[in-house]
Every structure is written in structure tokens, then in C-alpha cells.
Design brief:
The strands form 6 sheets. Strands 3, 4, 5, 6, 7 and 8 form a 6-stranded antiparallel beta sheet that branches. A 6-stranded mixed beta sheet has the order 10-11-12-15-16-23, sandwiched between helices. Strands 1, 13, 14, 17 and 18 form a 5-stranded antiparallel beta sheet that branches. With 544 residues, it is an alpha+beta fold. The chain has helices at 2-19, 29-49, 56-69, 80-91, 118-121, 204-217, 235-243, 290-300, 396-403, 406-417, 430-442, 450-464, 470-492, 494-522, 524-533, 536-543, and strands at 76-78, 93-96, 99-104, 107-113, 129-133, 136-137, 156-163, 166-173, 175-178, 184-187, 192-196, 222-226, 251-256, 264-267, 279-283, 305-308, 316-322, 328-337, 347-352, 358-360, 368-370, 376-378, 387-388. It contains 16 helices and 23 strands. Helix 1 packs antiparallel against helix 2, helix 7 (235-243) packs parallel to helix 8 and helix 12 runs antiparallel to helix 13. Strand 5 (129-133) and strand 6 form a beta hairpin. The protein is 41% helix and 21% strand. The protein is globular, with a radius of gyration of 26 Å.
Length: 544
């Protein structure tokens, strides 16, 4: 037993030590070796002598994650399941039921079935609660419930699920699933093509290239590239997407690191598809990383008009390093810079506030850079669009509503109660908003603000200190006022909430593909983009 435990402890430590570059850490090697020896000794003594039974794997997992939490959220340890998830994300291929699934308490929730894939063919819909897979009850399955849905292509599983308070069964035949980087492309009008690029996996540039060529063949003389909500992915694919619109040999992005071998400049390597076609790129606060390389570079080169709201601001590059037993560590190795020289990283993880939170780079500390045509652009806060839409702040109240899953659940209930004859004319109004607020009340929606937490703490302290009795009355008055403010805050975010509800409901009737079709006639970003592209002078003026 002792021999096995010793082996489990030492092997990962040795593997970590090997990962260190001797050139990068030469001066600190003694200190690293010293700390590893201290940790190894402590870990062994703890597991051998602690009064209760310990789980070395859980302790090590906690230790590693706690250590990495002091760095940035992108440097993280990946177990075998994480490595497989990353592979699927990068390749877009896996074997399964073809649906987004969420683990929730004792059941699995179908979040979104992919059209014409196994789950969809078996009749499963968003909102279905899987309670049994084969003979296995999800509530009794100790590991991640999603694992019991996995299996080889061609194999079948029987699932029991709840829908609208009814229990149903179906059989799903697993198959190869391809997650598209470009889930949709089509013509907005006779001359304007629309391409949605949702992630930068290994197929991103090839699928974008195919979409662009197809749209040009249909008569597209202008293009809208939608990167909203795109979290990024492979840097090389970002370079290749830029290459579709700019000449061969153009600098796209530069990475800088303390390890010299990671300092690189990435240039376009292929002949472009079209260097003249007018392009509008859509971004928002969830456009990050590779999305920001594409939008920031096209902006720096004055090759596209950027429309939307400020992007996320992730200017860091990660690289996975293999460890033992199929695990990896993904390490932030460098910062990236667009052609103008700016790094758009917005959060400073190395200078935190008193709460230990990364602070946002202050606007007065932004540095000015120039695009190819001499336009002013800035670093430190994401990519600022040329045409700015007011960013809807994801406040405490909106976060609480979304995290409660009540928008998702309301859309499910709406779908089974209502028939929509023409989704293109679908629109929620005041009556629906009032109905949703009633739905929140019926489902006991509540959340505690930081203000309430502070007041509660102060109130409890006052009782211990036996202060004036009026404090309790004043406390209740303040809480009542806060509750009224929370109700008012929901009303203040009416448009945002209705937009989230609309998108979720439209997907229920038409899948995600139908949502993109709906966007083309209802989305303000696309309307504005079309307006800009329809006026050549306006388009050129933005780039001067």
C-alpha cells in the first residue's frame, strides 16, 4: 500500500518537473526543487497519518486547482475527461446522441437537440428531463451523468424522460456527430451574404471559406461575418480566417512571452478569396480570444467595419502540456498583439483588488495605436467597435435570472402551450413580460444582493452588541426598500429579458438554424450592418 501510494505521489510530481523549461527557470530551479520536496513530504505525511481516511486524488486535485487559481482562469489542470472535451471542442467531432445536455441534480436536461442527429430523430426536445438510461437511474449514478449517454457509433440506448409532467421512453441510436464551426450562412438580401462563425476549431477557416465562396456564387457582393458569442479557439484558425480577406504575407498577430521560443509572428500564408469585398464584422461582450484576433486585425488593417459592443478582452494565449495518466495542464504562455501593436487584454490578473479579484485596466491607462489608414484604436479593453451598440450590462439581477434556468424553463412551458403560425412575425410584448414576471413569482425566484448580505451582517452584529431596538425596524424598512428596487430592476431590464426569452422560444420551434433566419429580419446589429453596406460612401467613411 505504501509503495503504491508513493508511486502515485511521485510520478505526477516528476512529470511536472520535466515540463519546466531549464532555460526559462534556470535561476529558480533550486527554489522549485525545494518547494516540490516540501510538498511531497507534507502530502505523504498527511495521507499516512491523518486521523480519518483521506482521498489522495481529491486532495491533490484541490491542491492543484487552488494553486492555479492564483494565476489566471485559463491556466488549468485537465483530467482525462477535460482532455477529451477539449479534443471535441477543437475538432468538432465525437460519437454520441447529438445534443447539448446539462447535468442538474438527479437528472439530465436536454438543452438543445441538434437537427437531424440521433436525439432529434428519437423525438427528444429541449427541456426533456432524462431520468433513466437503460437500467441505470440517473439519480443513482455517482459520476457525471452525461457519461452514460456516451458509446460507440451504431449502438442504441433506451432512455426514460419526463416532458410536460408525462413520463415517456424512446430509443436513441448513437452516431458520429459533427459540431460545425459555421452553423449557418445565407443571403440577407440579393447582394449581402451572412456568415455565422461560432467557434475556432480546426474546421473554422475551411467552413468559412466554403460559406464565402458559396455566397459569392449566389451573388453576394458584401458580407456580414457574425462573431457574437464566439469564445475563440485555435489561434492558427484565426489567422486563416483573416487570410480569406487579406493578401498573402500580411502580419496578423504577434505573440510575446518570457520563453523566447514562444515569441512568434503569424503571417497569412495563402492566396485570399477576396481582398475587395466590403465586410462588416459583428462582435459583443462574449466575443473573445481568436474572435478578437480576427476583428482586431481586420480593424487594424482597415479591412472591415466592426459593429456591435466591446469584445471580452482576452489577450492571452494558452498551450496544453501533457502530464502523466492522460492528464494535461493548459498554461498561459504569452500575450498576443494585433498588427497595430495593441494587446486587448482587459483584466489584470497579476494586480488584484482587496477581494482578490482581477481588476479591469482603467480607461485612462489605455494606450493609443493607429490603424493602417491612421485611425485611432486602443489597447487594454477588448476591441472597440467602429459602430457601437450600447452594451447591455449583465447585472446581478439578469445573472440571477439566467442562472436560475427560469428563462429556459419558461420557453419550454411556452412551447407546449402556444402555437406559432409564422415564426418570422413572432414577437413578445408587454403581456408576455408580465406573464414571465408572474412565472418568476410562482417559481419562488429570489436572489440576495451584496447590499443585503452587508446589511444582514451589520444587523446581526448590532444584535450581538445590543444596540437600539429601532435598528430592527430600520433594518426591515431597508430590506423592504431593496426588494422593491429588485422588482424595479427587472422592469429596467425588460428589453434584455424579452430578447433572451425570444431567442430561447424561437429555437424551440425552429432549432438554432431557424434562430439565425429570424435574426436576419429582426436583429438590430444585422439591420445596421446592412444599412452600412448598402451605402458605399458610409462604409468607406468608417475606414478613413
Amino acid at each position: 500500500m505504501k509503495h503504491l501510494l508513493k508511486k502515485r505521489i511521485i510520478l505526477p510530481i516528476v512529470a511536472c518537473a520535466i515540463c519546466f523549461s531549464t532555460t526559462a527557470f534556470k535561476n529558480d530551479f533550486f527554489e522549485i526543487a525545494k518547494q516540490i520536496e516540501i510538498f511531497t513530504t507534507l502530502f505523504k505525511e498527511l495521507n499516512m497519518n491523518y486521523v480519518d481516511e483521506t482521498n489522495p486524488g481529491d486532495l491533490m486535485d484541490t491542491a492543484i486547482k487552488s494553486m492555479l487559481n492564483d494565476l489566471d482562469p485559463y491556466t488549468r489542470f485537465m483530467n482525462e475527461q477535460d482532455v477529451e472535451a477539449a479534443r471535441i471542442n477543437n475538432t468538432g467531432d465525437y460519437t454520441g446522441i447529438g445534443a447539448r445536455v446539462k447535468t442538474k441534480k438527479d437528472k439530465l436536461i436536454i438543452v438543445e437537440p441538434y437537427k437531424d442527429y440521433p436525439a432529434d430523430k428519437a423525438g427528444l426536445k429541449a427541456g426533456d428531463e432524462i431520468i433513466k438510461v437503460g437500467d441505470i437511474l440517473v439519480s443513482e449514478y455517482k459520476e457525471d451523468g452525461f457519461n452514460i449517454l456516451k458509446g460507440e457509433s451504431g449502438t442504441s440506448i433506451n432512455v426514460t424522460f419526463k416532458r410536460n409532467n408525462e413520463t415517456k421512453t424512446t430509443t436513441i441510436k448513437r452516431a458520429e456527430v459533427e459540431i460545425k464551426a459555421v452553423p449557418h450562412f445565407s443571403m440577407v438580401n440579393k447582394e449581402t451574404g451572412y456568415i455565422v462563425l461560432s467557434k475556432f476549431n480546426r474546421k473554422a477557416s475551411s467552413e468559412t471559406s466554403y460559406a464565402l465562396r458559396d455566397l459569392k456564387a449566389q451573388g453576394a457582393k458584401k458580407v456580414i461575418l457574425d462573431l457574437r458569442g464566439n469564445p475563440g479557439g485555435l489561434l492558427s484558425e484565426a489567422v486563416n480566417v483573416v487570410n480569406l480577406f487579406v493578401p498573402k504575407g500580411q502580419l496578423v498577430v504577434t505573440t510575446k512571452s518570457k520563453v523566447k521560443k514562444y515569441n512568434r509572428s503569424y503571417f497569412t500564408k495563402k492566396d485570399p478569396i477576396d481582398t475587395e469585398i466590403p465586410v462588416v464584422v459583428l462582435i459583443n461582450g462574449r466575443s473573445a480570444s481568436a474572435s478578437e484576433i480576427v476583428s482586431g486585425t481586420l480593424q487594424d488593417l482597415d479591412r472591415a467595419v466592426i459593429v456591435g459592443s466591446r469584445s471580452f478582452g482576452k489577450g492571452l494565449v494558452q498551450r496544453p502540456k501533457r502530464l502523466t495518466y492522460g492528464t494535461q495542464v493548459k498554461i498561459t504562455i504569452s500575450r498576443y498583439y494585433t498588427p497595430s501593436g495593441r494587446c486587448i487584454q482587459s483584466l489584470d490578473y497579476w494586480n488584484r483588488n482587496e477581494k482578490g479579484e482581477a481588476v479591469r485596466v482603467k480607461q485612462e491607462n489605455y494606450n493609443e495605436f493607429k490603424t493602417k489608414n491612421g485611425r485611432k484604436v486602443f489597447d487594454g479593453g477588448g476591441v472597440f467597435p467602429d459602430v457601437n451598440f450600447d452594451k447591455t450590462k449583465n447585472t446581478t439581477i439578469t445573472k440571477a435570472i439566467i442562472n436560475s434556468d427560469l428563462i429556459f424553463d419558461y420557453a419550454t412551458a411556452y412551447y407546449y402551450k402556444n402555437t406559432v403560425k409564422d415564426i418570422n412575425t413572432f414577437k413578445l410584448g408587454d403581456v408576455d413580460f408580465r406573464d414571465f414576471k408572474n412565472y418568476l413569482n410562482k417559481n419562488n425566484f429570489s436572489f440576495t444582493t451584496n447590499t443585503e448580505k452587508a446589511l444582514q451582517k451589520a444587523y446581526e452584529t448590532s444584535k450581538k452588541e445590543q444596540l437600539d431596538d429601532d435598528i430592527e425596524t430600520n433594518y426591515k424598512t431597508l430590506i423592504d426598500g431593496l426588494n422593491a428596487s429588485k422588482n424595479k430592476a427587472i422592469d429596467n431590464h425588460k428589453n434584455y429579458i424579452l430578447k433572451q426569452l425570444t431567442e430561447e422560444i424561437v429555437k424551440r420551434y425552429t432549432y438554432r438554424e431557424g434562430l439565425y433566419q429570424y435574426y436576419k429580419t429582426h436583429d438590430d446589429y444585422i439591420k445596421k450592418s446592412t444599412e452600412i453596406l448598402n451605402n458605399p460612401k458610409t462604409y468607406v467613411d468608417y475606414l478613413r
